[in-house]
Amino acid sequence: MKEHLKSMTVRELAEQLKTLGQPAFRAKQIYTWLHKGIRSYGEMTNVPQALRDLLSEKFPLLPPQVVRKQESAKDGTIKYLWELADGNCVETVLMRYHYGNTVCISTEVGCRMGCAFCASTLGGLVRKLEPYEMVDQVLFTQVDSGLPISHIVLMGIGEPLDNFDNVMRFLELINSPEGMNISMRHISLSTCGLVPGIDRLAEKKLQLTLSVSLHAPTDEIRDTIMPVNKAYPTEVLLQACRRYYEKTGRRISFEYAMIDGVNDTPEAAKILLKRLKGLPAHMNLIPLNHVEESPLKPSTRQAVQRFQAILEEGGVPATVRRTLGGDIDASCGQLRRKYTQQGT
Ligand code: SAH
Predict the structure, then answer these.
(1) Which residue is closest in CA terms to ligand 1's atom 13?
(2) Which one, of 269, 266, 214, lies nearest residue 238 by Cα?
């Protein structure tokens, strides 16, 4: 997992360099270069030529290639399709918010969670991404767009907690002062509800925002749209959320995709209120985005507003997520893995 230099911490890099007879100070230097998004070792101008040659032979950089770049005419959202070193492709989205440029990264090639409304899971999981492949999505989005990235959401293709160790490593790397130095408070991690992963994450006491894709107030409804609910039913999930809050003191953000006639009734909102009692939470309502293969439809505007009003009146802050990049299929649930040989 850690053979790629960019998947190593500064300390590990120093150990690696030591085995090559290099002084410790080179580690920070090289780490900083790597995390600037260089495409070749030749760019490391303050590193001796002989070392650059050695590194490029032993540790090829393997930067991702832009296969396709689309920009939304409506809101300036940019979607990248990257080809990874092994020919697999993943998508990354750059969104421009008033508080800063936010990159939405993928954590796996495909996904095995099988949510009925999500394009990312069609075709299942191919493989997990390595830490450097997640770092590269941030770096090369910044380099290619020329826009400084200040925020990250782990909400692209894949289930972050299904790739736990690599994702934890990614967070450590991207947070490192020698690299991108992105504050944990500017990072959100979204999960479909893998309870053991939530508990492991709680132990780390990170300052990031945990988003939980709840999407339904009862097992009856959740079972029909999220297979993960069979393994971790709503009560078990909500208990894990409570433990998470107790451990970290961080309010949980719930995602709730509003699906016409499935989970958007006033009754559903009322049940939700009851079940969230005493748990500091924020509800993110997302009108369902279109996925060609799915028959599910978004809730009407009235249904969304009614749902939001019931939650708010019951004391749970609820916002309706603004849809960005809808014209380029860059919205929640619309990202897909692709293979270059299929002509994307
Ligand atoms: N696997 C993680 C990360 C994906 S984040 C998770 O499930 O949380 C993407 C968010 O978009 C999740 O909340 C997901 O459930 C939601 N989503 C998926 N398909 C969607 C769609 N068609 N419309 C709106 N939201 C969708």
Answers:
(1) 213
(2) 214
Nearest-atom number in ligand 1 for the CA of 211 is 8
Among residues 133, 231, 173, the alpha carbon closest in space to that of 32 is found at 173
State the distance from the centre of ligand 1 to the C-alpha of 84, rounded, in angstroms: 23
Three-state SS for 66?
strand
Instruction: Pick the closest to residue 26 from 136, 132, 178, 172 (CA basis).
Output: 178
- Of the candidates 283, 197, 286, the one whose C-alpha atom is nearest the C-alpha of residue 236 is 197
Which residue is catalytic, options 111, 192, 241, 332? Answer: 332
The predicted model scores a pTM of 0.96
* pLDDT the model gives residue 344: 42
Q: What is the residue with the minimal CA distance to atom 11 of ligand 1?
A: 332
pLDDT by residue (tens digit) across 185-209? 999 999 999 999 999 999 999 999 9
- pLDDT tens-place string over residues 88-123: 999 999 999 999 999 999 999 999 999 999 999 999
What token pair was written down for 78? 């940019």
CA-to-CA distance for 3 and 60, rounded, in angstroms? 10
Q: If pLDDT is split at 50, 70 and 90, which confidence band does 343 have?
A: very low
**Measured between alpha carbons, how far is residue 33 from residues 10, 37, 145, 186 in Å?**
12, 7, 19, 23
Residue nearest to atom 24 of ligand 1 (CA): 288
DSSP 259: B
**pLDDT digit string (tens) for 118-169?**
999 999 999 999 999 999 999 999 999 999 999 999 999 999 999 999 999 9
Domains of the chain: 5-58 (1.10.150.530), 65-342 (3.20.20.70)
